UniProtKB/TrEMBL annotation, chain A:
Principal subcellular localisation of the protein: nucleus
Family as reported in the entry's similarity comment: Belongs to the DNA polymerase delta/II small subunit family.
Superkingdom of source: Eukaryota
Keywords carried by this UniProt record: DNA replication, Nucleus
Subcellular location(s) of the protein: Nucleus
Species in which this protein is naturally found: Lithohypha guttulata
Every DNA polymerase alpha/delta/epsilon subunit B domain range: 220-463
Domain DNA polymerase delta subunit OB-fold: start-end pairs: 46-183
Region (Disordered): 189-210
This protein's name: DNA polymerase delta small subunit Cdc1
Pfam families per UniProt: DNA_pol_D_N, DNA_pol_E_B
InterPro entries: DNA_pol_a/d/e_bsu (IPR007185), DNA_pol_D_N (IPR040663), DNA_pol_delta/II_ssu (IPR024826), PolD2_C (IPR041863)
TrEMBL record, chain B:
Organism superkingdom: Eukaryota
PANTHER family the record matches: DNA POLYMERASE DELTA SUBUNIT 4 (PTHR14303)
Gene Ontology BP terms: DNA synthesis involved in DNA repair; DNA-templated DNA replication
Molecular function via GO: DNA-directed DNA polymerase activity
Region (Disordered): 1-105
Organism expressing this protein natively: Lithohypha guttulata
Compositional bias ranges of the Polar residues kind: 30-45
A single Gene Ontology CC term: delta DNA polymerase complex
Protein name from the UniProt record: DNA polymerase delta subunit 4
Amino acid sequence: MVGSQSLLHEWRADDRYGERKRQPSAYNPLYSYRLPQGEKRQYAQQFADMYFLRLQKLKATVEAIAAQDWEDYEIAGERAQRVERVLDVRQGELSWVVGTIYIDLPLKPNVLEDVSKDHFISGPPPRTSYYSTDGEPQVMLEDNSGRLRLAGVMLKQNLLVTGVILAALGTENANGDFEVLDIHIPDLPQQPPRWKRDDEEREEEDGMKVDRPATKGKKIAFVSGLEISGTDADTMHMSLLTEYLLGEALDDGEQDAATNISRLVIAGNSIAPEVIVNQPVGMEEVKRPKEKKYGYDAAAYNPAPTTHLDNLISELLPAIPVTLMSGEFDPASYGLPQQPIHPAMFPHSRTYATTNLVHPEQEEPGWFESVTNPWDGDIEGWRMLGNSGQPVDDILKYVDLGGPDGTDAEGRLEVMESMLRWRSSAPTAPDTLWSYPFQDRDPFVLSKCPHVYFAGNQPRFDTATIEGSSGQQVRLFTIPRFRETGEIVLLDTETLEAEIVKFDIHGE
Amino acid sequence: MPPKTRRAASGPTARAGQSMLSFKGRVSKPTDSTTALKNAKTQLNEPAKEIITSEIVKQSTPEPEVQPKQTGKGKAPQVESPVRILPPPSRKKKVRRSAGEQNEAAAYEAAEKQANDLSDARITKFWKAEENKRLAPQIHQQGVHMHEKILRHFDLSSEYGPCIGITRLRRWKRARALSLNPPIEVLAVILREEAKENRKGGTRDAGRIAYIDELSGARDLAVAA
């Protein structure tokens, strides 16, 4: 129970109410996942370009690692040879080759099956997992020349999904499959030191070095899965959250602690999924309206959730800067990388945002920033990378980690660690994860290692630190869904430790 | 959920006594959507400042008239200085194009220059060298011009990536950016074909996209090279 000295006491003439100041937030976002605007955004490209770009970018790195390790790899007097194309492996010769993994699972959505079933049965329900115990997944290695089926025990021991670039050492067996003996992945990329980007920009402008004193106790708050819907008015938890962040809740000690929270990051799914009312097609006659109605059709669109969200954010904004990422159920573009929710959805909050929608990198970011999913940027000098959970959820459909619904948090962190080691923030795009067809660059390939990596809308909170071979250290954590758990995550900006604050209602 | 704004009860009863509004003579031409977009974009960035500064000017001009009245009691009337309006402090960041992009643009320009200076003899020599690498000669290509043969060979070289869904020039640029060292002679041929007036084929992109792409029915890639 909270100390109640300040909450209930007699009126005193000399009561002084001090003003509290929030810690400032050093914020320098990157716009790596923004898509070109207007006519430059085209969807006529092929997705094969994305795989080519990804392989091209990571091939050199993997080759270097593999060449160094397998230089003197010998089995029965035979040395391993580097082979250029996957189709050049020969039976009985020990060789290693670099390529992209492709996994064929029995329950994976197959467009040819869909086309053939189109005329006969109604569409299948969306599958929660592609993995099934009967029917083996087929793992193949692919590059621009062709595909090679892989076999061997190593495949079961390593987590592999479509889109991973790796080097495989082995030999072709009698079936024509490539028996894998060893695997190398690109591993963590270079990690920039803290404050690197801010220092570079400051040096260019002023030519002076900046002194950065360590501020103890400064925190960043992460929340995801607010899932505001128009029908359920469950605003109690959100009111508690707002009061806590604004420093209005509890007593002096807690309010002082709340001033340490310098920024709020909302990691997706702020709107609940059941909002859009589906009109049954062809079952009723569409009534002709008697008078022409201007504006939207009120029966289909419910503006209440976005209004609620706007009110929530505009209540927070004068006191705390907010970064809003789009999520799976938010009114943003569908495929990855999801574009920011348009400021038109937030009539009150957008006064705090920049007006330059086409080139936001030219302006100082405002206190309200609507950003992409996945998102990367610098907060307090630390490079952060995060997504609203879709890549992680998609990878878990390939494997059997952590039970059928992945509630075991161990599985989630392992997937996140693997994604960093594969240097890809969404390896299964475009195979099973909808994506924009990139033709010039694959933005999902990580060139710099982040200091913090988070995934929103996960069933539980969990955190870990992983290390790389050249001293990289990354803090991983999952953000639970606020609607279900009532928890937010606070990340300390000096020690990078994560803790949760839970909002709950007594008696529920 | 009812709409947020309600219209007043319409109908002849509400408007009794008022004549109908006439829109005759008002020009209401539909504007081209792209020009409207372009205008809208600039409006977001610039004219807001002009509107604000013009309003400041309007508001501040009455002040010099007020001042002499107030100071007229004991002091000599001062010469009113014109009110200076300072421009709003610019919040623009210096945009640094990443060093990689600038290098790439410069390198491509150099390559383009080199390609334009290439002689036809050099291109022919290049193609002969490529043909000599084959084990058997190509058949059914009698009617195909050498430039087209070079371009088709470039299309089918898978080390530069897939050729479907992208123009040849963009593919060459992309291969250059990824340090794959595509032959400069191919760029020379692409640029020369581009410069030609009469390109065969019915579609706009004939000769620009890969031949197999054309055969498979791809039309009019909207993104230009």
